[in-house]
Structure formats: structure tokens, C-alpha cells
């Protein structure tokens, strides 16, 4: 059984860009809420989205797959997805699998917003 309390997601808009601040762990048990935040099932695909992973303590292949799918969907609609603030453990996973070669990664949300 999953432990949803291991994850929290806050959303805000900065200059027309959706910013999702994710805290906790992104894995098989928590991927549903992350997927729904990245690509809300009842909403239009966002055109510009920054995922702030500064408070993510762990991410496995479930998270990698979610970000790849979100990138493909958002890019297909003419938008972009950027990752910001990933800590060393999460950044290492992103780099090992090459996600950083597909999705633009930035040290801070501010840098991700400006591109």
C-alpha cells in the first residue's frame, strides 16, 4: 500500500508559466498524483511548465517515465517542460538515464523560467 503522505505538490503560476513544486519521493506508489499534476486529466495540456524538484528526496524509473511522457505531450502541443532545482541524488538519476539530454534542466526555478 502506498503512503501518499510521502509526497506533496504545490502549484503556482509565474508570468503565465505553471510551476509545480514537488516534495518527497517520486516512485511507483506516488506516480499517480505526480502524473495528474503534470498533465491534469480534465485540463488542456499546459504550454509551459517548470517542475521544481528541489525538495524531492528520491526518484525512480517511474518518475523518469512520467517526465518523459509529460515532455512528449507538452512538446507535441508546442510547449515546453523544464526541470529545476533537482538535488544531487535526483540529478544523478536524471543524468544516468539521459533525461537531461531530452528535458531542459536548470539549477533554479528562476533560471528555468527564463530559459
Automatic annotation (TrEMBL):
Signal peptide: none
Domain STAS: 7-115
Pfam families listed in its UniProt record: STAS (PF01740)
InterPro entries the record matches: Anti-sigma_ant, STAS_dom, STAS_dom_sf
Gene Ontology terms for molecular function: anti-sigma factor antagonist activity
Family: Belongs to the anti-sigma-factor antagonist family.
Record protein name field: Anti-sigma factor antagonist
